[in-house]
Write a structure and sequence with these properties.
alpha/beta, Aldehyde Dehydrogenase, Chain A, domain 1
Length: about 200
């Protein structure tokens, strides 16, 4: 069994266990992601400079602080997002309790972009965590230093039974898309996104 089959099965089991559904788990993972960004600023700046010649100021503002603020916003709003939502009841159901309870989808595939390789990879991850999902992160191979950094760092900060990072290029992405995912998040051109959507069914 290849890593793909084994890894996807592991993450599916992680989701099925119900651990991602609790507010405590989501809060813990988002807090860990904020720590990752805070504790590795120099490494992130170095990787983005090597990949895209981004200066430290641009990386701090458009990649690190932007992503960190997204995570903080999610933390501040998480309880409200997960609470049952009241609905207008028809007359025949006046005595019933009627509400909408949002549920996580399951396993999410996040395919990152090369031009904002941190922000456009981790911001969707923040959404996936906030919604109680597990996720596979596929960073862009066109920004290899940032991709390598995410491969090294994310498993140190996030729950390995619920989140995984897969490096590689078009071949790895195409193979990933042969597996069923509950949600796919892709940032990029229609020329690449359309075949990916077709492959995903």
């Amino acid at each position: 069994m290849s890593w793909y089959e084994d890894g996807i099965e592991r993450l599916r089991k992680g989701f099925s266990s119900g651990r991602t559904r609790s507010l405590e788990f989501r809060t813990s993972e988002l807090t860990s992601l904020i720590r990752l960004l805070s504790e590795n600023e120099d490494f992130i700046c170095e990787a983005l400079h090597k990949d895209l010649r981004k200066c430290k100021f641009e990386t701090m503002v458009s990649e690190i602080k932007f992503t960190k603020n997204e995570a903080i916003y999610a933390l501040n709003n998480l309880r409200g997002w997960t609470e049952p939502e009241s609905v207008v009841k028809p007359f025949a159901m006046k005595l019933d309790q009627c509400f909408i309870q949002k549920q996580p989808l399951g396993l999410v595939l996040i395919i990152g972009a090369w031009n904002y390789p941190l922000q456009l990879t981790l911001t969707p991850l923040i959404g996936a965590i906030s919604a109680g999902n597990c996720a596979i992160i596929k960073p862009s191979e066109i920004s290899p230093h940032t991709s390598d950094l995410l491969v090294r760092l994310l498993p140190k900060y996030l729950d390995k039974e619920c989140f995984a990072v897969i490096p590689g290029g078009p071949d790895e992405t195409s193979y990933l898309l042969t597996f069923p995912f509950d949600k796919i998040f892709f940032t990029g051109s229609p020329a690449i996104g359309r075949p990916g959507a077709q492959g995903a069914g």
